[in-house]
């Protein structure tokens, strides 16, 4: 592998906020690898999302993926995966979309992928702003973001993928060069 410095970007937010869509688009634009945290968090199963991998296994899989890719964009959540993962990123993009729109997107996605929307999943996702008993919540994610060692860009509202990419481009314009000069 060359001396080229790794570039790692994390896109996070509530389920249905568009992290995967934006992650795929940004990784394509950067010429990098797209990674989905859910693909690493959950063991393969049919139906999906039944059994979780251990934190150690998740960490090992993700670090190996980072080593293979000079540029990688990870979508989803890696909170509580360990500081080695959580502070590996050059940038984090946080997406926030109101609950009604997120739930509409999730229903459509669930119907498209599985032929039905899982009521328990939708109920869990609807609690994000107030905080579900376990998993992601707005307060937990904001606290996690404030503890990061890298810059964080907040994108709020119903923006198109192209609008989000344009804002990221502007925000990142000088930051890659600044990070190129910084030792890891």
Give the tags.
alpha/beta, 5-stranded parallel β-sheet, Rossmann fold, 47% helix, 184 residues
Short summary of the structure?
The chain has helices at residues 19-30, 37-41, 55-68, 83-86, 99-114, 119-126, 138-146, 161-172, 175-181, and strands at 7-13, 33-36, 71-75, 91-96, 152-156. The chain is an alpha/beta fold and 184 residues long. It has a domain at 7-98 and 151-179: P-loop containing nucleotide triphosphate hydrolases (Rossmann fold), CATH 3.40.50.300.
Protein architecture, described:
The structure is a single chain. This protein has 184 residues and is of the alpha/beta class. The protein has a domain of 121 residues: P-loop containing nucleotide triphosphate hydrolases (Rossmann fold, 3-Layer(aba) Sandwich). The protein is 47% helix and 15% strand. The protein has 9 helices and 5 strands; from the N terminus they run βαβααβαβαααβαα. The protein has a 5-stranded parallel beta sheet with strand order 2-3-1-4-5, with helices on both faces. The longest helix is centred in the middle third of the chain and has 16 residues. The chain is globular, with a radius of gyration of 16 Å. The mean pLDDT is 90.
